[in-house]
Design a protein that fits this description.
Distance between the termini: 38 Å
Structural class: alpha+beta
Helix content: 40-55%
CATH topology of the largest domain: Rossmann fold
Number of strands: 9
Largest sheet: 7 strands, mixed
Order of helices and strands: HEHHEHHHEEHHHHHEHEEHEEH
Oligomer: single chain
CATH class of the largest domain: Alpha Beta
Length: about 400
C-alpha cells in the first residue's frame, strides 16, 4: 500500500512539474511523464439537418432556412471547423513531443472514419490533412456506405437487456426534468408562436432489446435545439437562427437542455453506452495498451495517434462508458461539431508505468462561427478511477471498463 501511495505522489509531483513547464517554467526533461500515444474520436463538422422536409414541416408551419448542401451532409464551413480543431490538436501534440514538427508522420498517424456517411468520410479527410499537413494524407474506412461496427453495433449478437434498461431509466428520474421542460416550452414558443404548445407530458421513451426510441416533445425540442445551434455555427444570418429568437450562444444554452436530457437516455446512460460504444472503447483501450490489431483499422507498432472521425453519438457513448461528463466554457453543446474526446497515454520515465489522462478538445461557439483559432481549447477531465488526479493507471481503467463491454458488440 505504501508503494502505491508513493507512486501516486510521484505522479502528482510530476503532473505539477509538467504544468509548470507548459507555463514556461524550467523543468529537467527526465522529471516529467512522457506522452507516448493518443487515441481520440472527433465528431464531424457542421452539417445540414438530417430530418426530411416533411418531418420539419410537421414541427412548425414556419419556413426553415435553406442550406447549401443536402440533408445530413457536411458543409464547407463544417469542414473548416474540423480543420480548425484538428490543427490545434496537432500543434499541441507537436509541442508535447508526440508528433514531429517537420516531415510526414507515415505510420505514426492513422485516421479511421465511419464509412456510412458523407459527413464522417469528408471530416476524416480534413482530420488526416490537418494532422499531416502537406503530406497528401488521407483517411481510411470501410467501403463507402458500409455499416462499421466500431461506430455503432446493435442487433444480432449485440442486444440491450430490457430489464436492465428499465431499471436504469427509472433510476434516472423523470423523462422530462425541470430544465428540459423549460427548454421544451422555449422551443415550442419558437416553433409554434401561435400555438398549440408542445406538451412535455406527451414525451415517450420506448425500449427493446434492439432499440431505444424517444418520441414526442422532448425529441422534437432536442432535435430543434441542435438545428438552431448548427444554424449559428454555420454562420447563417441572425434572423435565420431560430428565426431570430435564439441567435446567440447565451440564448441557445437553455434550449439545449432538452438535447442534454435526450442524449442521456439515448446514448450516454451507461447501460446504453456500453452496447453502442463497446467496439470503439475496446479498440481505444487495446491500442493504448500496445495490443496489435490485424483487422480494420489495423494497429501496429509505431502508432502515435489514432483518430476516429465519428459522430456526437460516439462522444456520448465514451462519456457513458468511461463514467465522465463535462461542460465547455463558451460552448453550450457538450458534443458540438468537431469536438474531440482524446485519451492520452503517459509513461513514468523512472518506473515505466503507463497512465491515462483525458482531454476534450472544442471550439467556443462564437469562435466556431468566426473560424477563430484562438477559440479552440482543451478541457482536462479527471477519470472516476482516480478522482481529482491528472493521471490514472492504465491498468486500473482497463480493469473497470473492459469486463463490462458486451462481447458480441463491436468489431
Amino acid at each position: 500500500m505504501a508503494g502505491t501511495w508513493e507512486a501516486a505522489g510521484r505522479w502528482r509531483l510530476r503532473a505539477g512539474l509538467l504544468a509548470m513547464a507548459l507555463l514556461g517554467g524550467a523543468l529537467p526533461a527526465s522529471a516529467a511523464p512522457v506522452l507516448e500515444q493518443v487515441v481520440l474520436v472527433q465528431r464531424h463538422g457542421v452539417r445540414a439537418p438530417t430530418q426530411s422536409a416533411d418531418i420539419l414541416a410537421r414541427w412548425t408551419t414556419r419556413a426553415w432556412p435553406s442550406w447549401p448542401v443536402g440533408a445530413g451532409e457536411l458543409t464547407d464551413k463544417g469542414a473548416q471547423v474540423v480543420a480548425l480543431i484538428a490543427t490545434a490538436m496537432r500543434n499541441h501534440y507537436v509541442q508535447a513531443g508526440l508528433l514531429a514538427a517537420q516531415g510526414c508522420p507515415g505510420q505514426a498517424v492513422l485516421v479511421w472514419s465511419d464509412a456510412r456517411d458523407e459527413r464522417t468520410r469528408r471530416s476524416g479527410r480534413m482530420m488526416a490533412q490537418s494532422f499531416a499537413p502537406g503530406c497528401n494524407a488521407d483517411v481510411t474506412h470501410l467501403p463507402d456506405g458500409a455499416r462499421d461496427p466500431l461506430f455503432r453495433r446493435v442487433g444480432k449478437a449485440c442486444r440491450y437487456d430490457p430489464a436492465e434498461l428499465s431499471r436504469a431509466v427509472k433510476a434516472s428520474g423523470p423523462l422530462v426534468d425541470p430544465a428540459s421542460a423549460r427548454a421544451i416550452a422555449d422551443v415550442s414558443a419558437i416553433l409554434r408562436p401561435q400555438g398549440p404548445p408542445l406538451d412535455p407530458e406527451a414525451s415517450r421513451l420506448q425500449v427493446s432489446d434492439k432499440s431505444i426510441r424517444l418520441s414526442g416533445p422532448l425529441a422534437i425540442a432536442a432535435a430543434s435545439a441542435e438545428i438552431f445551434l448548427l444554424q449559428y455555427a454555420q454562420g447563417l444570418p441572425a434572423e435565420d437562427v431560430a428565426w431570430g429568437q435564439a441567435a446567440s450562444p447565451a440564448a441557445l444554452k437553455p434550449v439545449l437542455a432538452a438535447r442534454d436530457r435526450a442524449v442521456w437516455f439515448a446514448r450516454q446512460m451507461p447501460v446504453v453506452a456500453r452496447v453502442q460504444g463497446a467496439g470503439m472503447a475496446r479498440v481505444m483501450l487495446e491500442t493504448l495498451s500496445g495490443q496489435p490489431r490485424a483487422t480494420a483499422p489495423a494497429v501496429g507498432a509505431g502508432l502515435k495517434l489514432l483518430a476516429f472521425a465519428g459522430h456526437d453519438d460516439n462522444l456520448s457513448n465514451m462519456a457513458g462508458i468511461f463514467g465522465v461528463d463535462w461542460s465547455l466554457p463558451g460552448q453550450p453543446d457538450k458534443t458540438a461539431p468537431a469536438t474531440a474526446f482524446a485519451l492520452e497515454r503517459w509513461r513514468d520515465p523512472e518506473t515505466g508505468a503507463d497512465s491515462l489522462s483525458l482531454r476534450i478538445w472544442y471550439a467556443e461557439l462564437q469562435g466556431m462561427r468566426a473560424l477563430d483559432p484562438a477559440s479552440v481549447h482543451a478541457v482536462s477531465v479527471p477519470l472516476p478511477d482516480c478522482p481529482g488526479e491528472a493521471f490514472c493507471p492504465l491498468q486500473t481503467v482497463r480493469a473497470r471498463i473492459l469486463p463490462d463491454l458486451p462481447a458480441g458488440c463491436g468489431g
